[in-house]
C-alpha cells in the first residue's frame, strides 16, 4: 500500500480526488442503454426475449421463474448453507425491525390537527446479478428491509441462466420475494420501470448490477425511485498499537478481493503497525485464491496514512467518510461518539468486516465514494413514504387567515390569498 | 377543465402519461450547464464573477451578502409580514421537531452489540431563486428542517440583485442560515458542489430553481446529495356533494396560478358538483391577477373525473399519487386510512391548500409527478445520516465463525472467510 504524507486537509483532498476517479462511471454505454429502455417500453415482453437471445444466448419461454425451479433449488442447496442463511436472515430481521417508524399527530392549537402517516411503498423491484457476482447475502439485504417496511409486492429479476445458483432462489424465497423473473441488464431495469405484459411496473428499484444496470437505473431515476448508484467498495481502518497486523491485513484483503477498483485505507498512529501490516499483506496475498484482483487493488488503490494523535486519526477518517469503518483499538466502543461519517462501523479487534457482510444483521448495501457524508445504509426507511396531513376547523382558519393572506400577497400570489378569503366571506 | 371518462386503470394511465409529458425537462441546456460546472470547478470565484456579469449584468465585489444588507432588510420589511413569518416559523418548527429520530442499540446475543447512530449532515446548501419566484416561505421550508436535524452550517445562495427582496434575507436570518452568498444559476450549484475560494463545498443541496439549476443539480447528484428534481406543481381534490364548489374552484386556481404547466385534478362522485366547480372557475378566473397563467393551466391541464363510489375515488387518487391532496368531504379525517400515496393531505372543507404552503407547519417541498409513490415531503430525515455499528467479542465470533465461513466460501470469497479464520487460529 502506498503511504500518503501531508496535513489531514491535503490527504483527504487527495483521497477524495482518487476516489472520484475510481468511481468514474463509463457513460459511453448510454446510447445503447437508451435504445434498450425504449425498445422494452414499446415492445414489452417481445423485446425482453429478443435481448435474452442476443445478450445471454438463451431462448426464454417462461419469463417467470416458477415454483418447480425454486423447489429444486431447496433440494440442491447444501444444508449447511441453508442453515447459515436462515440464521443470517434472523439477525437481519431483528436488526432492521428496529428501524420501523411510527407516525405522529399533534394538535398545536384549538381546531388544528397535524400529523405524519407512514405507508410502505407498494411494489418494489430487486435486481440480482447473475454469474459469479450472484450473492445470496445481497438478496437478503435488499429484500428483508422491504418486507419489514410492509411492501406488498416484491419482484426479483435476475439474468437468465442454464442453471440458476440455488442459493439465490432459496434466499429469495426465505426473504419473501413474491415473484422472480429471469431478465437481466438494462432490459430488466426497463421492464421494472415501465412494466410489460408479464412483469408489473414497480415504484422503486434496488440492487447492484454491472455498468448497463447502473446506467439504466440512473436513467429511469425520477420515473421510479432507486436505492443508489454504488461505486467500488471501500474499507477504512483506524488502528493503534493494540491492533493485530494479521487481522488488519486479512480485513484489507477481504475488501480488495472484490474488485481491483476496491480501496483499502489504513490510518494509524503507529509506524511499527503500518510496517507489520505491509508485511502481512505480502504473506497473505500469496495464498489468496483471488490474489490477482486483490494485489491490483492493494498496490494501486491501497493507502496508509500515519498521524500523530487519535484526534487527528478520527478527523481524517471523518473527512474520508468510508463505506466500512473498522476501529481496531482497545475500548473501541468508547470512540463511537467521534464517528461523524461512515456507512457501517465495526468495533474492536474481533469485529471483522465480513461479519457485517453476511451475518450480524446490519445491512451491507452501503454508501460508497464518500457519500456517507449525506447518505446511509439501505434500510426500512428506504421502503416507506411519509405522508403529511393537516386539518383546520372553520374557527381555526379564521384565527390565522390574516397571516396567510398577508404572506400570499407578499409573494404576489393572489390566488392563494383568495382561497383563504373564499372561506372567510359569509 | 376537461372531463376524463374510463375505468380507473385507463384514467390513471392517461393522467400518468400526461403528467410525464408535462414534467419532461429540457435537456438541451446540458452542454452549457456542463461547461459552467467545469469553469467554476477550475476557476472558482473568478468564474462566478464572470457569469454574474454575463447572465445578471451585475459586477459583484463581495460574493457574501453581509450583515448590513440583512439589517437593512429587517428595517425595510413590512412589520405585518415579519410577524406572520415569525408565526409560520414557529409552526414549521413545532411540526418538524416531531420528525427527530433517536438511534437504537440491542444485544441480540452474548458479546454482541449492534446499533444505529443518527448524525446530522455537516454542511448544507440551499438555493433560493431570485426575481418574482423568490419565496420567503420556501426559505423557511428548506432551512428549518436542516436546522432541527442539527446541520452545523447552512449556506444559502441566491442570484445577485440590485436590491434584494427583504423578505428573503429576513426569512434566512430567522431560520438560522449561517452565510448568504449572491450567486445564482448553474454556477451557484457548481460553487456549492465543488467549493470556491469564498464559498465552501457542501454535502447536500436543496431548493428549487429554473431549468439551469435543476439540470445542474441532477448533474452533480452523487458528488453531493440533492433533495429532488421537482416537476410542475399539482393538486388532486376528492370531493363529494358536501363540498362547496366556490372553495374548490379557489383551491384549484391557487395551484393553477403557479405555472401554466401546473395541474389541477378533481375526482368526485357528484355530477352536479363537477358542473358547479366549472362555473365557479370561470367566475373566479375573470378577476384573478394571474388570470392568463391560471387559465392556461386549467384549460390545458385541468381534469375532472366522475366516479360512482367513494372506494373508486380513493383508488383512483392513490394511483394518481398527487403532490397535494384535498379531501373535501364531511368527516374527512375518517378517510385518512384510505390514503396510500400523496405528498401532503388537507382534510375537510376549511383546510385550503395554501394553509400548508405558508403556515400550518407541514413542509411545502413535496414530491411531484406521481413520485409520492416512493418519496416524501422534505423533512428532518433528509438532513441526517444513519450510521450502523456492530461489536463482536472474541467468544461471540467463535460461536458464529463457521456460519460466516460457510457463506463466504459459498459466494467464492475466500478472503472474507480468511478474515474470520485469522481470528480463530491461536
Automatic annotation (TrEMBL), chains A, B:
Its EC number is 1.1.1.23. Substrate binds at residues 233, 255, 258, 324, 357, 411, 416. The active site is at 323 (proton acceptor), 324 (proton acceptor). It is an enzyme of class 1 (oxidoreductase). Pfam families: Histidinol_dh (PF00815). It catalyses: L-histidinol + 2 NAD(+) + H2O = L-histidine + 2 NADH + 3 H(+). Zn(2+) binds at residues 255, 258, 357, 416. It comes from the Bacteria. Its cofactor is Zn(2+). PROSITE patterns: HISOL_DEHYDROGENASE (PS00611). Keywords: Amino-acid biosynthesis, Histidine biosynthesis, Metal-binding, NAD, Oxidoreductase, Zinc. InterPro entries: Ald_DH/histidinol_DH (IPR016161), Histidinol_DH_CS (IPR001692), Histidinol_DH_monofunct (IPR022695), Hstdl_DH (IPR012131). Belongs to the histidinol dehydrogenase family. PANTHER family: HISTIDINE BIOSYNTHESIS TRIFUNCTIONAL PROTEIN (PTHR21256:SF2), HISTIDINOL DEHYDROGENASE HDH (PTHR21256). HAMAP family: HisD. This is Histidinol dehydrogenase. It comes from Streptococcus oricebi. The gene is hisD.
Amino acid at each position: 500500500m502506498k503511504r500518503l504524507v501531508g496535513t489531514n486537509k491535503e490527504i483527504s483532498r487527495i483521497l477524495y480526488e482518487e476516489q472520484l476517479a475510481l468511481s468514474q462511471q463509463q457513460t459511453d454505454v448510454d446510447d445503447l442503454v437508451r435504445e434498450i429502455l425504449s425498445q422494452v417500453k414499446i415492445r414489452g415482453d417481445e423485446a425482453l426475449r429478443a435481448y435474452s437471445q442476443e445478450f445471454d444466448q438463451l431462448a426464454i419461454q417462461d419469463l417467470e421463474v416458477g415454483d418447480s425451479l425454486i423447489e429444486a433449488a431447496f433440494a440442491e442447496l447444501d444444508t449447511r448453507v441453508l442453515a447459515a442463511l436462515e440464521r443470517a436472515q434472523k439477525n437481519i430481521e431483528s436488526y432492521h425491525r428496529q428501524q420501523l417508524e411510527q407516525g405522529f399527530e399533534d394538535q398545536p392549537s384549538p381546531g388544528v390537527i397535524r400529523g405524519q402517516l407512514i405507508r410502505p411503498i407498494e411494489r418494489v423491484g430487486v435486481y440480482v446479478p447473475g454469474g459469479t457476482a450472484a450473492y445470496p447475502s445481497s438478496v437478503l439485504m435488499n429484500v428483508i428491509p422491504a418486507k419489514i417496511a410492509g411492501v406488498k409486492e416484491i419482484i426479483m429479476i435476475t439474468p437468465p441462466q442454464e442453471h440458476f445458483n440455488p442459493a439465490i432462489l432459496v434466499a429469495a424465497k426465505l426473504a419473501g420475494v413474491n415473484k422472480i423473473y429471469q431478465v437481466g441488464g438494462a432490459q430488466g431495469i426497463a421492464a421494472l420501470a415501465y412494466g410489460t405484459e408479464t412483469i408489473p411496473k414497480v415504484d422503486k428499484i434496488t440492487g447492484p448490477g454491472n455498468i448497463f444496470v447502473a446506467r439504466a437505473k440512473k436513467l429511469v431515476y425520477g420515473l421510479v425511485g432507486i436505492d443508489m448508484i454504488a461505486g467500488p467498495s471501500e474499507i477504512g481502518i483506524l488502528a493503534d498499537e493494540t491492533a493485530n497486523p494479521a487481522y488488519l491485513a486479512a480485513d484489507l484483503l477481504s475488501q480488495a478481493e472484490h474488485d481491483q477498483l476496491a480501496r483499502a485505507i489504513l490510518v494509524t498512529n503507529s509506524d511499527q503497525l503500518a510496517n507489520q501490516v505491509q508485511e502481512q499483506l505480502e504473506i497473505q496475498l500469496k495464498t489468496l485464491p483471488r490474489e490477482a484482483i486483490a494485489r491490483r487493488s492493494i498496490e494501486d488503490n491501497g493507502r496508509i496514512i500515519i498521524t500523530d494523535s487519535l484526534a487527528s486519526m478520527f478527523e481524517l477518517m471523518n473527512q474520508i467518510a468510508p463505506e466500512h469503518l473498522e476501529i481496531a483499538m482497545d475500548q473501541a466502543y468508547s470512540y463511537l461518539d467521534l464517528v461523524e461519517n461512515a456507512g457501517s462501523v465495526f468495533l474492536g479487534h474481533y469485529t471483522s468486516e465480513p461479519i457485517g457482510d453476511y451475518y450480524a444483521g446490519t445491512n451491507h448495501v452501503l454508501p460508497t465514494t464518500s457519500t456517507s457524508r449525506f447518505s446511509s445504509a439501505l434500510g426500512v426507511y428506504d421502503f416507506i413514504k411519509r405522508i403529511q396531513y393537516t386539518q383546520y376547523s372553520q374557527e381555526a382558519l379564521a384565527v390565522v387567515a390574516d397571516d396567510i393572506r398577508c404572506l400570499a400577497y407578499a409573494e404576489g400570489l393572489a390566488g392563494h390569498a383568495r382561497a383563504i378569503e373564499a372561506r372567510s366571506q359569509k
